[in-house]
Amino acid sequence: MDPMLTMAVRAARAAGDLIVRYVDRIDTLNISAKGRNDFVSEVDALAEQEIVGILSKAYPSHAFLGEEGGRHNLPKGEYTWIIDPLDGTTNFLHGFPQFAVSIALIHRGNIECGVIYDPMRQELFTAKRGSGATLESRRLRVTKQKAFTGALLGTGFPFKDQRHNDAYFGMFRELMKDTAGIRRAGSAALDLAWVACGRMDGFWEIGLMPWDIAAGVLLVQEAGGIVTDFEGGTKYLETGNVLTANPKLHPLMLDAIRPYVTDALRYKAPLGD
Ligand code: IPD
Ligand code: CA
Ligand code: CA
Questions:
Q1: pTM of this prediction?
Q2: Running DSSP on this structure, what letter comes out for residue 159?
């Protein structure tokens, strides 16, 4: 395995083990709100420290953008690690076992490696640009689902910023009409990993952050899936609007979603604004 990917796996497993140690003591944790419906616990911070500690020791010259690290602008360094130490904090805080560690490495603007680790199921998803994506050692492929009939989609509700409710529920209504079901599981990183491994046929969400999606985007792409923003472009890291599916279903989802795109969705403020 690529040495940087190996190091990312080590860091993700260490953070996942740490998170699992707190699962039975959630009621003892200090929990605070970073914003409306946006909670964070000391476990998020400890997990991030664990990851950054391991990676910065191995790669002292690399830059880090971690959700809990207080960095607001994408650093311009040659190598940047993008880290969500605990994706699905609300689930974690409720003992709802759907959360993950997500780590990606960006090199000169490209996502080079991605690791998503689900510590409850002990499932490790990895991707290396140009070399495919795996779940443990199994090579991942997106589904071959061609139509909405029978398709299972994933989504996330825009609960932190409810200005987009009308746009979102328009999209939801369209996609609910003909599909077999829509799941809102609560961890965007796992949603993407689950599209990559074929547990869901597609996924869309408004306003995600780079640390929610960087690793998952690479997983889906390396599993043969398509990832775009809501207009079919590549501005998903900038806008946070992610639409992903297999190559047959993606255009159908795009046609359903695009009519609901507003200027407010199109021009999300940059990180930190
Ligand atoms: C959240 C999860 C959730 C998504 C939110 C994210 P967090 O990440 O990925 O599924 O709907 O928008 O912020 O806050 O638990 O790391
Ligand atoms: Ca997240
Ligand atoms: Ca998080």
A1: 0.94
A2: -
- How many C-alpha atoms does 29 have within 13 Å on its Cβ side? 23
Task: Please give the distance of CA 210 from its chain centroid, rounded to a whole number.
Answer: 8
Q: How far is the CA of 217 from the centre of ligand 2 (A)?
A: 13
Residue 272: the pLDDT is 44
Q: Which atom of ligand 1 is nearest to the CA of 191?
A: 10
Q: What does the radius of gyration of the chain's CA atoms come to, in whole angstroms?
A: 17
76 vs 214, higher pLDDT: 214
Residue 25 is predicted with a pLDDT of 86
CB 157 within 8 A of CB 163: no
Residue 215: half-sphere exposure toward Cβ, Cα within 13 Å: 36
Closest Cα to atom 11 of ligand 1: 156
Q: Is the CB of 193 under 6 A from ligand 1?
A: no
Ligand 1: which of 157, 161, 212 to mutate, judged by most atoms within 8 Å of the beta carbon? 212
Q: List the domains of the chain with CATH numbers.
A: 3-139 (3.30.540.10), 152-263 (3.40.190.80)
Q: Which two tokens stand for residue 144?
A: 């071959």
Please tell me the distance between residue 100's alpha carbon and the centre of ligand 2 in angstroms: 9
Determine whether the shortest distance from the Cβ of 213 to ligand 1 is under 6 A: no
User: In angstroms, what is the span from residue 73 Cα to ligand 2's centroid?
Assistant: 16
Give CA–CA dist 235/240, Å, rounded. Answer: 8
CA distances (Å), 154 to each of 30, 53, 208, in order?
A: 31, 33, 14
Neighbours of ion ligand 3 (CB under 5 A): 67, 84, 86-87
